Amino acid sequence: MTLEDIAKKMCAKGKGILAADESTGTIAKRFNSINVENTEVNRLAFRETLFKSEAIKNYIGGIILFDETIRQKTSSGLSVPELIVKNGSIPGIKVDKGAKVLSGSPEETVTEGLDGLRDRLKEYYKLGARFTKWRAVIKITDNYPTVQCIKSNSHALARYAAMVQECNMVPIVEPEVLMDGSHDIDKCYNVTENLLNDCYEQLALHKIDLKGTVLKPNMVIQGIDCQKKSTSSEIARKTLDCLKRNVPEEVTGIAFLSGGQSEIESSKNLNEINKINDTKFLITFSYGRGLQASALKEFGKNKEDIKKIQNAFNHRAKMNGLSSKGEWSEKLEKEIAA
Ligand code: 13P
Questions:
Q1: Mutational test site, ligand 1, from 29, 132, 257, 292, max ligand atoms within 8 Å of CB
Q2: Which residues of the chain are under the pLDDT cut of 70?
Q3: CATH homologous superfamily of domain 3-337?
Q4: 288 lines ligand 1 (CB under 6 A)
């Protein structure tokens, strides 16, 4: 398969990406919220339950794993990547080493992990990964982001993407503008626009084949503490407009992060975007919390109740699969949930 074929499969109509690549620190927060101890056994139990569910075959084109998970064996004896392939999806891997203090602007971050990356990529390919993820994090306040922060992160994203394509995998390029803060939707639009522009300038400079990439952006949306809540149709219009103006047409897939939106909000907003999508981009989801929150709650209630955990996950995956085609509705959400 070419890199373009892989990107098309990850973002095929009706499908999207499961971001199950929480670092050990991040999954600690998620498990803490459901009173589950953060052990390797529990992390595998939760993830294996999802990876074995019906939803993977039908609605999940790719699964992003964390370094620990890609090396684990499942209860059936298959490795995690083998289980994912068996269920008709594509294994991927988060390869960045996290957002670290940006020297010169210490309240902002730059994502690290380029040193030794080529060797790690070769190993991940052998372990079964066919795509990768690198997340840059940009925050909005009255004084931020700085040009320094945007340029440092875009540069790292492009160098990462070049190495990943050299190693025959599809890079997910994730420049995330955080929802934290009280900024309005237009401020988010402006920052997202500047960031996307800079990223694609850097990707061009590093000779990235855009057909063999997937962009993972934030939606254009107000900050969590903003008083003025935008409607789904305004979020959809502004998000699509921002993408059309700043993302080159050659990009194959655009898969949003949920970024702190609730499960329903993230399905509804993705659906609105696809209802008005008049581009060639395959527009879909690459959700962590947006796909897993309900399943995680069930796991907290009873880890052994595989059926309940899978039902919760299957439902969210199905809803987002519909949203990737602009066919989701509140009515279907309730009917199918009942
Ligand atoms: P959320 O959907 O929970 O924002 O996570 C997606 C992700 O992978 C962020 O890097």
A1: 257
A2: 336-338
A3: Aldolase class I (3.20.20.70)
A4: yes
